[in-house]
Structure formats: structure tokens, C-alpha cells
Design goal:
Length: 477
């Protein structure tokens, strides 16, 4: 009898133990299944990031957390809670022009559009009309359609050529424009040294006459230690002052008048793009970038950037915000590879602010540096990092052109051959490449497109942005 009881207890114990083990097994499987499910969802999410679209219209009605936008006779309702909404002097007024950047599909939903809003920009009425061209509120749509017409007629070779702004060669500059279908030239001090104004104008006109599509003619005229044009006494009695010197002498009033004078001088020569202003935040005189910066904290630097960009825009001069994501106290990437160990939070708190101010003020382009920023991408320089370009597009909401720093600089050349660097730059998301070696880099990108390594859609999107900017600036008539 005792033996029977003992066996029964043993069988019950075994049964309970088996049930317990099976429960653990099925729970584990379920967890793995759910984990795999969510991993698949995350991967799918990463692979289906939608492009940013634009809606141009006017303010029909505005409430506390709702904005109704009328565009082409249709009304769109947007919920504005936690949305980046920028305005100008008059704020959100009925009939003010508005630009909505979004992802998704608009459905005229009166309960609120079910799209992801990247940014909403409300402008003053005075900006509806361009005094030089008398364009109306449909300007953006007209520009886009004109750009698409040009794009549709372009070959692969012409499209890729448009993505390069090259250092102007010492000889056969006009011939190179034709051969490589160049999008632009960037001029340096040697292109101006000791030359008379008429000679410079003639040279630039020669480049433009050789181009099938009118070119960006760019220059670094920051003021202070970086001047290409005003060092020539035939063009200006003294070089332009640095931003710090201007502010110390005459505050923002002098900065604005200096920016206007600079734009007028450059335009008189045929230059349509100034690689300025410098957005880098630096308050330490020992920093490499300090002399070129505004020399003040992020908030003051942001005010300076906003003023300069708006002034350049009013003067119809292309602007370039540099050097994203912010130089900080790093060494010179002209001389070697630079690693930035700062936290991502420090960029959000300080470095991004001037870039946001410039973007909201209507900057034409953002130039990306060659710094390796470990908090964003520890493996690649910013200029060839898809992750950092994604931050610029999706977190800062920039929809304009992204341009590399010079791809001949030592800070990037150590990561691949000249041809491979150009391909990586396009794959990362750059629209324009600053190049000193077009003979190698343009054919390398063309080959990558023809081989399918780079999708032609990526090229088309970049070139469309380039063409739109050229039309806005009056470069393409």
C-alpha cells in the first residue's frame, strides 16, 4: 500500500513538472515570435521611409491646434499639435501663403489629414509676389513643372554632370563645362588675383555660354580669414570684415548692410552662390573654426544666421549653411581625418540651432562636413554618411539641396578612392558634390548608375532640386 501511494505521488509530480516545462516552452516561443514580429516591423519601417512632399496654399482658417489650408480650390485640415510651425512678422493670418512639408497621402479629411507633418511654414503676404518676376502664389508649382520639363529631356550624363560643382581649372575651363555637363564652378582666390573686373566678368560669361544648362558660379566670401573676391583691390578697397568684427563695430545693422554689399559685388561679377554663412558655434579662440564663426553662443549665432540668410534671399543670392552637423572644437579636415566624440544631446542643444534658423529663413543649401561624428555614425565622415543626411532631412526638415565639402580634402580621402568617394557621396544623399577631380568622379557615378548600384530615381530627385533652385535664383531663365 505504501509503495502504491509513493508511486502515485511520483506520477503526480512528473505530470505537474511536464505541464510546467511545456508552459515555459510555449511562452518562450510566443515571446520569440513576437520579438521577430516586431523586428520585422522595424525593418519594414526602416525600408519604407516615404519622401517628403510639399503642399502650397493659403491659410483659410486657423484655430488653437488646427490649420485649414486651401490649395487649388481644395481644403486640407491639419492638426498642428507638436508640429514645427514657423511664421514671419504677421504670423498666421487668413490668406497668408503657407507651405506644408509632409509624408503620406492627402485625402481632404475634415477631421484632420492622416499624414506625418514634417514642418509648416507660414509666410507674409508681401512674399507672395516676387518683385522681379511678378510671380503669384502658384510660383512653386510653376517652378517645379519647369524643372520637370528640363529633367525629362536630360540624358544620364547630363544629369550626373549637374550634380557636380567643380573647382575651376586653370585652363580649358569652358571646354570642361561642355565635356562634363557641369552643374557649376566654385572659384578661388587664384581666379580673381590681380584681374580687372571686366576680365572676371568675361571669364564667367564664357563658362555660362559653354553650358547647356546655366551654372552655379560659387565662391567662399565669408569675410575675415576667408575671402576670395575682396582680396583683389581692383574689386574692393579692403577685404570684407569677419562677422565678429562687423558685430563688434556696428552690431546687426552693420552685418545686414555688409551682407547686401557683398551680394551686390558678387552679382555684378556673375557669381550667384556664396558658400556662406558659417553656422558653426564656437566661443573658444583656440578652436580651428573660431575665427570664421560668429564667436558667440548658439542662440546669438542663430540670430546672426537668420539675418544673413534672409538678407541674401532678398538680394537673390544663393546661400550655403556650413558645416553640418557643426564643427565645434574639432581640428581642420583639410589636413586629416577628424573624430568628433561629443554627445548627440550636445548637437541638439547647441549645434543644430543655427542650422534650423538658416533652414527656416530659406537657405538654398546645407554643406556637410567631413567630421566623423561618433554619436551619429562612428564609421563614416558626415559627408558620406546616410545616417547624418537622414538627420538633416527628417529631424531638421531640410528639403533643399545638400552639398558635400570638397571631396579632395584629407578628412574624407582616406576612406576610399576618388571614384568610390563620389559614389558614396551620392548614395549618402548629397545633391551636389564639390569636386577637384571631375575626370575620375563623374564617370564613376555614371558607371554606378548604369550598373544599377545607384538608382536613377535618386539622381532624378537630386537634379530636380538643383534645377528648382536654379530657377528660383534666376540662373535658369
Amino acid at each position: 500500500m505504501n509503495q502504491l501511494k509513493s508511486n502515485r505521488k511520483f506520477l503526480i509530480f512528473c505530470f505537474v513538472y511536464i505541464i510546467f516545462c511545456l508552459n515555459i516552452f510555449f511562452t518562450s516561443c510566443k515571446g520569440k515570435k513576437e520579438d521577430n514580429y516586431f523586428n520585422i516591423k522595424e525593418v519594414a519601417k526602416e525600408k519604407t521611409v516615404q519622401e517628403i512632399k510639399e503642399l502650397h496654399g493659403i491659410v483659410k482658417e486657423a484655430a488653437m491646434n488646427t490649420l485649414i489650408v486651401t490649395s487649388k480650390g481644395k481644403d486640407y485640415h491639419f492638426m498642428t499639435t507638436d508640429v514645427d510651425v514657423t511664421t514671419e512678422e504677421t504670423g498666421i493670418l487668413i490668406d497668408n501663403p503657407v507651405l506644408v512639408y509632409y509624408r503620406g497621402i492627402l485625402k481632404e479629411n475634415s477631421d484632420g489629414e492622416e499624414v506625418e507633418i514634417v514642418k509648416i511654414q507660414v509666410m507674409d503676404k508681401k512674399d507672395i509676389i516676387n518683385e522681379k518676376s511678378n510671380e503669384n502664389i502658384d510660383t512653386q508649382e510653376v517652378i517645379k513643372n519647369k524643372a520637370l520639363e528640363i529633367l525629362d529631356r536630360m540624358s544620364i550624363e547630363e544629369k550626373v554632370g549637374q550634380m557636380f560643382i567643380a573647382r575651376s581649372p586653370r585652363s580649358e575651363a569652358a571646354e570642361k563645362v561642355k565635356e562634363y555637363n557641369l552643374g557649376g564652378y566654385i572659384l578661388f582666390a587664384r581666379d580673381f588675383a590681380d584681374k580687372k573686373k571686366d576680365e572676371i566678368i568675361a571669364n564667367i560669361e564664357n563658362y555660362q555660354n559653354a553650358a547647356k544648362i546655366s551654372m552655379f558660379i560659387g565662391v567662399d566670401e565669408e569675410g575675415g580669414t576667408v575671402n576670395r573676391v575682396s582680396k583683389n583691390r581692383n574689386l574692393r578697397a579692403v577685404p570684407f570684415w569677419s562677422p565678429q568684427a562687423l558685430y563688434e563695430t556696428g552690431g546687426y545693422t552693420l552685418i545686414k548692410s555688409d551682407t547686401k554689399e557683398k551680394c551686390n559685388l558678387l552679382k555684378s561679377l556673375g557669381i550667384n552662390l556664396n558658400f556662406s554663412p558659417v553656422c558653426d558655434v564656437s566661443t573658444d579662440s583656440k578652436d580651428f573654426i573660431y575665427e570664421r564663426s560668429f564667436g558667440k553662443n548658439a542662440e546669438e549665432t542663430s540670430k546672426y544666421i537668420e539675418l544673413v540668410v534672409k538678407t541674401m534671399k532678398n538680394e537673390n543670392m544663393g546661400s550655403v549653411l556650413k558645416h553640418f552637423p557643426g564643427y565645434g572644437n574639432n581640428a581642420d579636415t583639410h589636413m586629416g581625418i577628424v573624430y568628433d566624440k561629443r554627445s548627440y544631446e550636445s548637437f541638439e542643444k547647441y549645434d543644430f540651432l543655427p542650422f534650423k534658423a538658416g533652414i527656416n529663413a530659406g537657405a538654398s543649401m546645407v554643406l556637410v562636413s567631413h567630421n566623423v561624428v561618433s554619436a551619429m555614425d562612428e564609421d563614416n565622415p558626415a559627408s558620406i554618411s546616410p545616417k547624418i543626411h537622414d538627420i538633416l532631412r527628417n529631424e531638421l526638415g531640410f528639403v533643399g539641396q545638400i552639398i558635400t565639402d570638397d571631396l579632395a580634402m584629407e578628412g574624407v580621402r582616406g576612406f576610399a578612392t576618388d571614384g568610390e568617394i563620389a559614389v558614396k557621396a551620392v548614395e549618402a544623399g548629397n545633391d551636389l558634390l564639390c569636386s577637384s577631380n571631375i575626370e575620375i568622379q563623374i564617370p564613376a557615378v555614371i558607371e554606378a548608375v548604369k550598373d544599377g548600384k545607384i538608382k536613377e530615381k535618386i539622381i532624378d530627385e537630386a537634379v530636380l532640386r538643383i534645377l528648382k533652385t536654379k530657377i528660383k535664383l534666376g540662373i535658369i531663365k
